[in-house]
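Per reviewer request, we include the raw input and output of the structure prediction for the construct analysed in the revised manuscript.
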Amino acid sequence: MGTSNMGKVLGLVFANMHDMTVKDLAKDRTMGSILFGGRYRLIDFPLSNFVNSGISTVGVITKYNYQSLIDHLGTGREWDLSRKKGGLYLLPPFSNVESKLYRGRLEAIYGVLNFIKSVHAEYILMSDCDVVANIDYKPVLSAHIESGADITCIAHTGQHNTELIKQSTVLTVDDNNVVKDVLIAPNLSGVCTLSLNMFLMKKNFLIDLVQTAIAQGRYSFERDILQSKLNDIKIVAYEYSGYFKKIYSEKSYFDANMDLLNLENCKELFNPRRSIYTKVRDNPPAKYGLNSHVKNSLIADGCVIEGTVENSVLFRGVNVGKGVTVKNSILMQDTIIGDGSEIKNVITDKNVSVGNDRTLISSDDYPMFIGKGASV
């Protein structure tokens, strides 16, 4: 089962699927366009995983607020998806005459059914933008074909906290990884098998599922397919054991960024053999003033640092003034921190400016969020 077979796979990315879990961050953008890790956006991970696995046709399903997503993706050149055959397709809602703003994954797929039918693909691999991981999908396809499954769900078995489990779909599997039970947003804790919201199945099988479900007024893939049809179809879990972070709240977003300050996590996520691609901005390298002091931080290009930065993630073009202390914070693109200010446990969105001698300190459990373009 070589890469040649991956050419038969259509990748579908849902850019808006979990916007409600990170309301502040997704106020002006899709979940897929949320900035991450200094220079990336969340959609860079599923797109790069598809491309690195040999999938060359990808559709991005949007819902609303997708202007920044369009700006970021452009023609898809950075992901090698600017092609004559296949390539990157942006799929806005309402592309189907009778479709309305979708309520769930099935209605979202129904809205782009004409596109799916027109693509020469045998399989469809779906992914959301709420999981940050570096996954090779080639073994997933091999396992899917070998197991004879109708649907393969990529999942991770491990110790998970209650908040994460409450925002997830939990699978119960037998010794052959066949799914025997599906729990949606259960109130559990401890070791369990968590769906990563990535699903692989045959294209024609998906088309039939969606058409039948819509005719019956159903719209939730998890509830109306995985749960309801559990005994009629064969659903198999594919165990992914690598590093991943699921983003299901502002706090989990904060933690996922902070996780990158651990070198091991960074190495696994940004594996040089399977790069994560993003839109290139021509910025000069970061500039450090004579009295600057930076410790255990991720600093993107184009930053100017005159003060102290510790345990923080700074995106492109951030300006940290003289006598400033920034600790445990995430400062997004083009944030400016005026001289003499103190920032701790804060997330600033793009283009935030903090005046001189300001103090913004919040608790470890609830980082303060400052919206896009705000002046403090």
